[in-house]
Amino acid sequence: MSPHSDVRGSVRSAAELNERIRSLWLRAGGSLSAQERAEYELLVVEWAAAIRGEVVKAA
């Protein structure tokens, strides 16, 4: 998935995604493998989309 992919269909909240990101880092011990890095990047893109969606709802 590229950073420009459409992730607006996410049903996970920014808080849930943030928790998954934190958990990933804890499991990895602060050093991500290539596979973990790919998962991290997907989660961050989805988290950013969730944040934007929450800001739009609040406005």
Number of strands: 0
Q: Helical proportion?
A: 55-70%
Q: Please report the number of helical segments.
A: 2
Residue ranges: pLDDT <50 for 5 or more in a row?
1-7
Straight-line distance between termini:
29 Å
Quote the beta fraction. under 5%
Q: Overall mean pLDDT score?
A: 85
Radius of gyration: 12 Å
Q: Main beta sheet, described?
A: none
Q: What class would the helix/strand composition place it in?
A: mainly alpha
Q: What is the 3D form?
A: elongated
Give helix and strand order, one letter per element, not per position: HH
Could you describe the 3D structure shown?
It is elongated and about 40 Å long. The relative contact order is 0.20. With 59 residues, it is an all-alpha fold. It has two helices and no strands.
Task: Give the secondary structure arrangement, pairings included.
Blueprint: H1 14-28, H2 34-58
Helix pairs in contact: 1-2
